[in-house]
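<instruction>
Derive structure tokens from the sequence
<data>
Labelled lines for chain and fold
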Amino acid sequence: MTHLLLIRHGENDYTRTGRLAGWTPGVGLNEVGRRQALALAEKLKEAPLAAIYSSPLERARETAAPLAEAKKLTIEIVEGLGEVRYGAWQGKSLKRLARTKLWRTVQNLPSAMQFPQGETFRAVQSRAVEAVEGLVRAHPKDQIAIFSHGDVIKLIVAHYIGLPLDLFQRLVISTASITTLRLGQGQPALVKLNDTSGVEVAKPPTSKKRIASRRS
């Protein structure tokens, strides 16, 4: 069996203010996020990790860095673990996006959502699950850490627990949280969801609107 620790990156100024970072370059951790990354490294210092994988994006790599240093492991980049490509929505505030017609699709029928000039949730789930399957094949008996993004982690979890895509927004994945899956022979198992114990919990974004895509 493979034990996967799916870890969401730490807080950054986009998550703090309720904007979609997407693939915007240069979005690194803020002060809270850096403290969260250090706390994660402390929390997992005794974990028998065989490898550390990360989204290509800076905020994920920065969150992984203290743990990689503590465990003397190299951060291996996996493109399929990258954030949703939000297209024309990238960088926009959730408060503004809540006024658009597409907001209802994101909220109520995400399986039909095509972000303007961006990806569909179906495509994101497919490439993220394919990436995870490849890592499971490479580590059939190991524990590995995977640093990614809120929506991506939720889509991965939804796939393995059999949750319909249109319900995936019911899951909550906080910054610097750990979600544990056990995969391999037999049924997949969700061991733990959104564990933030021992890690500073970031304040909610300034927008109080609920949307899966707030998890930048």
